[in-house]
Amino acid sequence: MCLAVPGKIIDINEDKQHATVDYGDGIKRTVNISLVDAKIGTYVLVHAGFAIQTVDPKEAEETLELFREMIREEGG
Fold it and tell me: Among 8, 52, 57, 76, whose Cα sits 20 to 30 Å from the Cα of 46?
């Protein structure tokens, strides 16, 4: 099963190919953004370290909140 997770671009590296993505709750990762047209503040779907699509900010936040609820229910 494949899973893509939404996150917000908070910084773009000098090479313009990589960005720091914030998934919320202090979780940040560097991802490859060469497949999308994105800028700081853009929400993207990330799969296997690549931003594969830009997404609507409201939809991204709703999905992230669902993930948070699942974690709380699991006791995390």
Answer: 76
